[in-house]
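Forum: Protein Structure Q&A
Topic: Joint prediction for protein chains with partners

I've read a bunch of threads here and the consensus seems to be that you should model interacting components together rather than docking separate models afterwards. I'd like to see that in practice. Below is the full input, 979 residues plus whatever partners are listed. Could one of the regulars post the assembled result?
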Amino acid sequence: MRGMSIIVRIIVAILGGLVILYGLYVTLTGHLAPGGGFVGGVIIMAGITMMVLAFGGERARELMKEHHCQMLEGFGALAFVIIALLGFFAAGSCFFKNFLPTGKVHELTSGGMIPLSNVAIAIKVGAGLTGIFLALVLGCRSAMFRKGK
Amino acid sequence: MGIAIYILAFVFILLGVYALIAKKNVIRIIIGIGILEYGVNLLLVLVGYRKGGMAPILANGQSSANLAGRAVDPLPQAMVLTSIVIGLSITALAVALAIRLYDKYGTFDMNDIRDLRG
Amino acid sequence: MGVELVILLLIVFMIISALIAVEASDLLSAVIAIGAAGFALCAIDLLLAAPDLAFPQVLVEIITLVILIRMIMTRQDTSRQTPKDTLRTAMVMLACGMFLIVVFLAVGGMNTSGTIPSFGRPVMGSFDDTGVSSQYLFRCAQDTGAANVVMGILLDYRAYDTLGEATVIVVAILGGYAVLRRIGRKKREVKS
Amino acid sequence: MLMETIVPLMVIIPLGAAFTVVILSNLKVVSRLARIIAPLAIAVNLTLSIWICVYSYYYGDATVWAGRWDGIAGRPIGIELVCDGFARLMLVTINLVAFAAIIFSTAYMERFTTIWLYDSLFLLMTGAMNGVVLSGDLFNMYVFIEIAAISSYGLVAFGTEREELEAAFKYLTLGVIGSTFILIGVTVLYSLTGQLNMTRVARIISLRGISQSPAVILAAASLIGGLSLKAAMVPFHAWLPDAHPSAPAPISAMLSGVLIKAAGVYAVVRIIFNVLGINPYYANVLIALGALSMVIGVFLAIGQWDFKRLLAYHSISQMGYVVMSIGVAAAVVARGGSMMAASLCMLGGLFHMFNHAAFKSLLFLSSGSIEQATGTRHLKKMGGLARRMPLTSFCCRVGALSIAGVPPFNGFFSKLIIIIGLVVAGYPILAALAVLVALMTLLSFIKVQRYALEGPVSEQTNSVRESSWQMGLGMVILAVVCVLAGLALIPLKQYLFDPAGNALLNKAASMKNLLVEAVK
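Posted by a regular:
Agreed with the consensus. Here's the joint model:
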């Protein structure tokens, strides 16, 4: 898959960064406004995919190997499990115990472990969907088959 | 009016079931999966709606008691979020299977994709 | 009354889109029609005070559309119109009809007792035995510190569900990788 | 306190291990290490499940509130994990079969590529099934059923050959319909009661006396229909004979051995007994589904020549026994019959469920061993394997004798208990049917013995050798279980089946009392 024209590339280079930034914002403010980890992860993935489509698949595949996506995905999921397990060591020991101070409502630091969980989910969703989306849409793997057939 | 809304939501779901059972095209089956997901999500959102309700987000300076008196039911919304994710996952897996089926059989037609008998 | 009418019309629109998606002869228009239904669902989410849902719904919608359109554009559809399996279709129709009759009774069509509460009046409970939601609304800010009650439920009260949800994505993506593997078996086996 | 830590670990350990496998396998340095994580995690899980059984026997059932949201003044708001007798029975079954299957697959899966994907999907499926049986919350149960189902779609297609992809796609299509109807049922129950916790939903339904109102019937129809589809009961069985044989052999063992039980039969029984409350209609539906599956499954099986397909059809038939017997128990309780007959039927059903997990997994594993050695699944192309593969043939024979109901193997005892229970409960026609189906099962497996293990050595089987020791170990574990479960019925009954049966029957009876009081 080849990249697109220079105009598109420049616009996407600017916009892609903004989209990813917006994804981070949505992830971090999930406990205050609509959004959250899943939405943030999907937006980040959309930003990355936009850049991949504009700059072409080969360049992207040099930068992002599939196993990087898989590792990040596993890491995000494991982080969520670890957050769950940390509850065992807290005061009211039970898994998924919200052990952090809940802070003041409407502040970024409120919500105890909710923002942390959101970040973990965003990492996992962003990495996982980027990997599978590139595999499905660009046909990174299956394109090879059709040549063979 | 409320009864009609619920029944139409169920009709929408049954359209998805019809697409899955009666249609023989892989893409159309994936579309049917999408219809089913939308239908169930629609039903859940409808169930949680309170007339004239506000979104279950505490505004600055609002008291919790006030929110509890006015907001729509938040639990179905949490369930729909989970259900949306499950729907996306199933669709992704179905598309992956469809791509590989096309690689192997060269068609999207389930009438031609039948090596298994019985 | 106003909201209900709009929602009713939107659902009718969704049904028509779904019908087009199921029956249209061209696959591309079918995919676009199902996209239209998805966006109507987003509008319904917004009308029903659920911005938390409209957001992911629209994103998921776009992803699905991109994947499906890409899949159709790059591959030749050779499927043919086959004679309809009338017996099977008739049986499905019959089952659907019976199901709809039960639905009609269950949503209060004949106004018997023990029906689903009418539209716009969910069982949220206050301090009696039924309904758990008003407790969430009351206590969320104090218990979890989250202003967004949906997120409070999702990641604190019912975080165990969200672990499942997170796992579903991992499972589907790993399954997708497994299915897309170029070679599944190391050597060709003798086929029976 | 101790149980509050251990019970969630049954779900968390496999999930965490699966994610660790994903990370480690992609690091070049330690990717070999990743192979031992899966067997290790399942072994820990098996140990914990047995420990939970023994501990709970002496100290009673445990309930755990995720995040400790057990609410104020007895109004819970979180998710409950219930570890009662029925859940414990399923935990032991799942982890036992999973342990044998993962040991088997350490050698069997060598011929596939990217085995770490298999390992992590296997762990996720096992963890999800543990989650299903431990869950005391309707929506949570749905989520875990979905995880188990989605991972099984991926695993069925793991070989990525033509038949496997086709079977996986059909399985996915029907599975999605099933899950949709489960979610519709959950939605309707939520809209009625405003609760998701099973105990609370059951309480509200009985107190308001709406257990036969149209809305509850809609929920029941959706839930029973959707879950029967997952359990492959007869009108909904079309996917099973394609999906189960197409998977790799250890996965066939897991799907037939435990998945259709955990995500199908367990869930439907749990919902009917502990949520909706038993009444004669639901009981009759269960009996009809069970009897139909039992008879039609065995008729479809008897003409099969593909070994794994034959086993898959027998799964439908044997699960029919289980569902029918539990349905009869429900019918007896619903019409206020003798508790003795009900508990006898319940014991038979649960014992047969355990036994079926053991012998069907054993048979699928040995079919995998035979397929790997000979390269075929067709019975007529085998022959004389008894001399070439003594261990596999021995294990295959143990499994076949168990499923056919020959004494002193476990299948004989469970079928005998079911038949006696049916007669005592006043269903002699069903008992006669059960005997007939048992005879036909016996015939069908005599055919397997005759063509696969005995007879002249064909050219295809001439040069085969016994499989590796890991595969042998996996089969031997299950064969030992098959023999021991028949002989050690009394202690097993005391520690496993009686708590399980009581958990179902007592809760159902107490709900009925609640209803009687509410009517007064």
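Chain D has 19 helices and two strands.
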